[in-house]
Amino acid sequence: MIETIPLPVTDDPVDRAFWQACLEGRLLVQRCGDCGHVQHPPRAMCPVCRSMELGWSECVGTGTIWSFTVPRPPLLPAFAGLVPYVVVIVEPDDFPGIRIVGALAGIEGNGIGGIDPETIAIGGPVRLTFVSLADDVALPCWAPVAADGSLEKDAQQ
Amino acid sequence: MTQTTAFKDRTAIVGIGQTAFAKSLPETELQLACRAIRAALDDAGIDPGEVDALGCFTQETTPEFEIARNLGFGELHFFSQVAHGGGAICGAIGQVAMAIALGVAKVGVVWRSRKRGDPSKRQWAGVQPRIDDHWKWSRPHGLSRPVDEVAVMMRRYMHDHGATREQLASVALAQRAYANGNPDALMREKPMTLSSYLDARMISDPLCLFDNCLESDGAIAIVVTAAERVRDLRRSPVLIHAFSQGMTREHQLMTDYHGADPFRSSSGATAANLWRQSDIGPAEIDFAQIYDAFSPLVLFSLENYGFCGRGEAAAFAAGGAIAKGGSLPVNTSGGSLSEVYLHGANLVTEAVRQLRGEAANQVDGAETCLVSTCDSTPNGALVLRR
Ligand SMILES: [Zn+2]
User: Which residues form a coiled coil (chain B) (predicted)?
Assistant: First the structure.
């Protein structure tokens, strides 16, 4: 069993640009260059018009929690060490209907976890953050926004 | 009118066989497969030399040629494998049945042999340091096991419909009670109460230990042949009335939450095409064998196969419908949660025992059954009848 967090292959031509943008602190959603269809995860072809001219749109980086879970052991060792952590499915505010899996993390990007699961609810607002896991992997994660919006202020400073 | 007469009731399950079920068995998967297949052919009263078709899972580790040369089969004319683990058993049976109905082959064996009792056999435990397929969008985030993906769905279901853990518990409790009456079930001597369920440790909140299937060793085999052949056989036939596989466009291996309606899932695609072919509708089904690697899958499938409306399954189960004496007994041998976990193959053999009238928890007057496969993968289903 691997000891590290499993990482994505980042040099696949279909999604290389997605992972490159993450290194620059940007979250992309794939957009068809011919018909404008938006989809996630990225694919080789647009299922609406069969175009392979696929481009990207950048998310503003806010969203709401569609659902979440709190995994408990038995887990891969790297995740067992993070318990209790929360994994959410986020609907980005600017791309309705798109759902993206992400771990919850602090806004400082110090790592997955560190969020009290009791404070998390479906419909809660989250803000994009990135956790650096390798030279080629900045994992797009989400930081919960407190009821008083404090995190948003921090993020805007 | 639909053209379904070439398949409907043209084939039958005429033999079933199984090994002992246990947390750990000493024999290899090949040895277990041989035992189960030999038992199924004995049950049918068919000589192994007559077998000319095989169906199994892509995940099966015992290859067709080993099975054929160990069992002494005849020359084979059809062999197919079906993907997607828990979604596969009805597809494996249905494809063999189609080959027989069309005259390509005459006698088919479908089997599943698996040693899953050892924790190192968990598939998620074998994940590699770098992921190159669709799992790259979830596993690096710690959504790493099938149970995590189902937990996400169950929490959303609770949010949408006000369902509770107490309602969900009724699935595990009903199946444990069935297992307590089944001498072959791993959990035959272990009762479960609501408080023991609620006190069990969480595996992926809101799913606790008892919402998860067993980790077990064993093998099961099923024999299929033409309905017109069954007159000279040992057992009363269980007719394969309707069959479909199903996969929605947005499906991944374990998730459909990128699709427009994640709760319809591939079961929605299977169900629509299954009932289209069937003279028997959901209201005429006497009992159901619904894939249950995780208990929420039973609720989602009850809705997708039309036994209750969207959002109603939790109350349906909590009201006792799926338990012994209920309006739709479900997983009457204890299922994957409490009998054995063999990727759903035990749901088929229990359906056959019920329709023969020889089940441990016999449903009075059982004449029709739905057998489904995993709600959260590309899947398939069968309508069986006496
Ligand atoms: Zn397009």
Answer: none
